[in-house]
Amino acid sequence: MNLKTPALPGVAAIPPRRRRRYPPLNALIGGGLLAALVLLALLGVVWTPYDPLKLDLLSRLHAPNAVHWLGTDEFGRDVFSRLIIGARTSLWISLLSVSVAVVCGTLIGMLAGYLRGWTDRILMMLNDALLAFPGILMALGIMAIVGASQYGIVLALGIAYTPSVVRVVRGSVLSLRELEFIEASRVIGNSELYTMFRHITPNCLAPLCVLATSMFGWALLSESALSFLGLGVPPPAATWGSMLSASRTYISNAPWLGIFPGIFISLTLLAINLFGDALRDRLDPRMRK
Amino acid sequence: MNNYVKTALAVALSACTFSMAVAQDKVISVGLNGDIRSTDPGVNRDDNTDAVMMHIVEGLVAYREDTSVAPMLASAVAVSPDGLRYTFTLRDGVHFQNGQLLTAKDVQWTWQRYLDPKTQWRCLAEFDGRGAAKIVDVAAPDANTVVFTLDQANGLFLAAMARPDCAGSGILHPDSLAADGSWRAPIGTGPFTLGKWQKGQYVELERFKAYSPRAEATADGYTGNKQAFVDKVRFEVIPDSASAKAALLSGGVDLLPDVTAMDAAQLKQVKNLQVQVSPIMTISGLLFQTRDPLLKDVRIRRAVALSLDYSQMVAALSDGLSVPNNSIIPTASPYYDSTAHQGYTYNLDEARRLLKEAGYRGEKIRMLVNKRYPQMFDMGLLSQAMTQAAGLNIEMETLEWGTQLERYQTGSYQMMSFSYSGRFDAAQSYESVIGDKDKEPRKVWDNPEALAILREAQREVDPAKRRPLFDQLHTLMLKDVPMVVIYNGTAIGVMGKRVEGYRSWPVAKPRLWGVKLADTSK
Amino acid sequence: MAVPTLLLISVIVFALIRLIPGDPALLMLGDMADPQSLADMRSSLGLDHSVVTQYLIWIKSVLSGDLGVSISSRQPVLDLLVERFSVSATVVLVAVLLATLLAVPVGLLAAWKQNSAMDLGLVVTATLLLSVPSFWLGLLLLYVFGIQLGWLPVIGYVGFGSDPMKALTYVVLPIVTLTLVEFGAIARMARASTIEVLRLEYIAHARAKGLSEGAVLWKHALRNAFAPTWTLIGLILGNLLGGIAVLETVFTLPGIGRLMVDAIFSRDYPVLQGCLLLITCIYVLVNLLVDLLYPLFDPRVKL
Q1: pTM higher than 0.80, yes or no?
Q2: ipTM computed for the complex
Q3: Count of CB atoms within 10 A of residue B46's CB?
Q4: Which site among A95, A151, B34, C185 is 20 to 30 Å from C268 CA-CA?
Q5: Which domain does B297 fall in, by range?
Q6: Per-residue confidence (pLDDT) for residue B254, from 0 to 100
Q7: pLDDT tens per residue across span B389-429
Q8: Ramachandran region, residue B151 (left: φ > 0; alpha: ψ -120 to 50; beta: rest)
Q9: Residue A129: its chain C contacts at CB < 8 A?
Q10: HSE (CB half, 13 Å, CA atoms) of A253?
Q11: Check: CATH 1.10.3720.10 for C78-297?
């Protein structure tokens, strides 16, 4: 693993760590924001100001005030409480969908990249076909088939994002497999499978991490887009996306309904983008100063 | 710089609006939530198509404001004592939109076309003996008389004929078809003619200048004096309700004929808008699958019915515009009487007791909802929350509308939040729920006794004899709880101040005749 | 390569949309459907054949240039596609062009003055723009310019053929929204690749030759840095056409994205099949074009 492979975009290729007194600013802000959001999501497990599902038909569409800090929605539910539990659902759904895509994509990508030949050709043809498919429509179609449950969304988004992962993984595998240390592993008698998991998988991690962070952002966006098109997370659970899409009816007289979930989605995406940048800077040798 | 851009934009935009104002006279633009399917009335259709087509074509009879049936193109209708022969006398001097005079031959031709299975008329099943009586003959003994002969008495014959989803069985001129028999464009007798149809964007109707109105003083439902006053009606296709609202606020459209109660409450507060409300005949409620292992126990179904706080729920769903109604007969129906008014009384203790008696231990009950129709969704949401108090564990499952419809059709569900579209006769309302589940899985109420009473009501022509039958059905249905009817919807039209004379009504479709635009030159 | 991909896609599409429960006949008849009229309607739509037969019938007519007729509107699918596609394509192309013209120079400048206040400003702006959901931004713009200020029409669309000035007022907001969102992505990419290029030896070489900074940036850096940006633009173009559905919903634009979503909901099989065929064709074509044009921007790659 200590072979000198300067052109390799992998973890193994990172030269001895340069000592930095502070982590870069974007990692600091992004990481901090993310941590805060995750804390918020965890907070929802133990505490919310009100029951986020409790309907109060007598106090519908109240503007933010001392009792309801961020106002109430069209059923009199407390927006702040819904934002807190929404954090959990939204982040959880995004995380799960990305995991589905990463796991499926890695397996298929490695299979294609390592076995090559006909398997590769057929898999890649299928993959290209799926890649050409508009992701959001595919997700919409899958949701219509499996039904709009939380795991329906995870499945739909997971499948929709798998092709991109397959692409990246296969690319890395193809460039890795000709390298000396892989060759060496095979020469000393390790099986193909062992080589693949022992040596190739860790080396695909860097580009995968970068892709996974941006996919996390996409998943968050797609979840709200799906709600927007009419197939989101089923009620009465709240996600930021479904809150945002439900708010658009009230944009002129109850703007707080849309503004707060919108801000939270944007904040999360901002955190993810900053964090992703930092990650790329760290992992991609070409981007280092 | 910034100011310069602003000025330039403002100038350009005002130039646009100005040129629009000069070029056109009286155009009313109306929001439609989807494009029309075709211009072939009652054939390739949906709600929006019906709404537009009913401006172009007219039938022999039509619904009045109170959903009773009255002559339209006919001046009189006579029924033989055995109920088998209907004789229609046509009004004199009615012109088609191509200038031709309406004759009995045109009526005969139109009906022959409708009754031909190849036409695929939406309402064929009502007239070919499948659903009700069969039309054995349509004769035109003279230019002003048409005689329909049925094979058996049918109390619903005229009501079916007037149905808007049959396009009111609108009479067409034979030139509506091309020489090869394919559809060209509707040539009817209505107050508007078809103008430009830009698919996916708008449908324009133009005033039919030589329209021959009836003698009544005013319009009455789909009949009466239907004289048009605006030169053009432009139906704008706006699928998204939030955009439609925005368009109304910015003056992009003059009228939204059908907004949700919550939107209406909001729009009411805007100064330059006016709101028109009418109860309608849709039936909204919760359906049960009575063959479900859990829900086959009437006590559990009853517990659901008793755990709903109807007045609070309906007040929220309709923003105070509707009243609760546990009867399948809509409040706007002439058959809605004191018996139909009796319903379930909200009683949590009794609900809990019933559940305990039934041995219910918090088993999950899945209720299907959809987001296409917000009021079905909201009704499900509120029911779920309210039944929780009685200890019921209902879980919502959101489906795409088409999927939910399929589940409805096949009866594969435990519960669903559903709305039946408006039926204009009490027997039709009962018909939509009563039936043999083995033959028609979509029917929610499988009860032979009820079916027998229904059949009797369908044959009966005399309203006085039908009423007790419907009362009997209602009492039976409250006992069986195959579904919980919660309320009937409202049609809420919201329009700008310059729109005069527009009314919402139980049939829930917009009518643009009789509507004037006040001159509010800025 | 492209042809088997397209064929494969057509099979996937065909199978996938028929897996969605509910069919067009049911949706057209609604809650009043009795079994007999349902069966009649199905057979008149050709849905009573097996899926394989249906596919063969469809593919045969597609090969002879006939995409069929929409189930819901009875319009020929080809007409529908052309009509709706032109709307989406106008918006997407103009927005991406604007975004590119704005973002590339800005990215270049930011990279040149790396770590300056201007650079920081750009990075922050671009990242923020990238973090705003496009439809949320669209809604906000709609609210401000359409409802509050009343400057622009809120709904509808007029073809450029009939009244260009008016048409412009309808597409301004969607274009602005898309431009802003894509600006973020493109500017970041342009900046990153320029930074990378500026660090290369030949730039130092060019500077050493005494070339002005402007010439260095314009002639040497831009040319090389544009290659990855170009790939990104191709990707954006290919994906936008399918992804624009949400934005078209917000602005009620009769574009192809909206057409597809509506087709899914009304189970309008022929329209959906036609749309996806077109979209994937375009995707394949755009990718091909990007690959073909790549050498123009990246001298290192020679065909």
Answers
A1: no
A2: 0.78
A3: 20
A4: A151
A5: 282-490
A6: 94
A7: 999 999 888 888 888 888 999 999 999 999 998 888 888 89
A8: alpha
A9: 5, 8-9, 12, 280
A10: 20
A11: yes
